């Protein structure tokens, strides 16, 4: 069975995202590093079963605490996994750092810009199409609490393609 790792910074709504995708119940907390134990769930996408693992929150792939060590170890152990990188859309720069590190390691990634409503409330302008073109991965605005964007996330799971950082940097250079 193929695996999906649900990764992101602490407090970006990963547990709510996980619950929405799988229908499972996990304890949701606002304290960084509290999801040290991971949770598994399952989802069927176009007649294919996937195991989804809610990975502890991490800011980067260079661990600074036990939860981040576990997150990185889980990523390294699942070389063939797809990663849904959940980012707080209102703090996009912080989350993109982790997403780029994961992409650089060669994992197929779907970028979920969660808390899209918060970014809109702050009048943030995020160009989804430009992000898709630069990163060459699916980028989906989501609101985990309401389920907005989840159909597109599920459809993007099969479409996610692996892309290297060099290709991304070339595309960034083309925008200037």
Characterise this structure:
This protein is an alpha/beta fold and 176 residues long. The protein has a single domain (2-175), classed as P-loop containing nucleotide triphosphate hydrolases (Rossmann fold, 3-Layer(aba) Sandwich), CATH 3.40.50.300. The chain has helices spanning 14-22, 66-77, 92-104, 116-121, 128-135, 150-159, 165-175; strands at 2-8, 39-45, 48-54, 82-88, 109-114, 139-141. The chain is globular, with a radius of gyration of 15 Å. The longest helix has 13 residues, at 92-104. The chain has a 6-stranded mixed beta sheet with strand order 2-3-1-4-5-6, with helices on both faces.
Distance between termini? 42 Å
Multimerization status: single chain
Residue ranges: pLDDT <50 for 5 or more in a row?
Answer: 27-35
Main CATH class: Alpha Beta
- In the CATH hierarchy, the architecture is 3-Layer(aba) Sandwich
Quick gist of this model?
With 176 residues, the protein is α/β, with parallel strands linked by helices.
In terms of topology, how is this protein built?
Blueprint: E1 2-8, H1 14-22, E2 39-45, E3 48-54, H2 66-77, E4 82-88, H3 92-104, E5 109-114, H4 116-121, H5 128-135, E6 139-141, H6 150-159, H7 165-175
Parallel strand pairs: 1-3, 1-4, 4-5, 5-6
Antiparallel strand pairs: 2-3
Defining traits:
single chain; 176 residues; alpha/beta; Rossmann fold; six-stranded mixed beta sheet; globular
């Amino acid at each position: 069975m193929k695996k999906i790792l649900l990764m992101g910074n602490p407090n970006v709504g990963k547990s709510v995202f996980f619950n929405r995708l799988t229908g499972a119940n996990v304890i949701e907390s606002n304290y960084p590093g509290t999801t040290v134990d991971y949770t598994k769930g399952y989802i069927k996408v176009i007649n294919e079963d996937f195991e989804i693992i809610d990975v502890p929150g991490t800011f980067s792939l260079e661990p600074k605490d036990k939860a981040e060590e576990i997150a990185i170890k889980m990523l390294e152990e699942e070389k063939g996994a797809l990663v849904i990188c959940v980012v707080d859309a209102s703090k996009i720069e912080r989350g993109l750092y982790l997403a780029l590190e994961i992409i650089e390691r060669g994992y197929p990634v779907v970028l979920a810009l969660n808390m899209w409503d918060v970014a809109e409330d702050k009048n943030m302008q995020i160009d989804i199409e430009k992000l898709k073109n630069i990163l060459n991965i699916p980028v989906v605005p989501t609101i985990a609490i309401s389920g907005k964007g989840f159909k597109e996330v599920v459809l993007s799971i099969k479409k996610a393609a692996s892309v290297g950082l060099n290709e991304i940097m070339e595309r960034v250079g083309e925008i200037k």
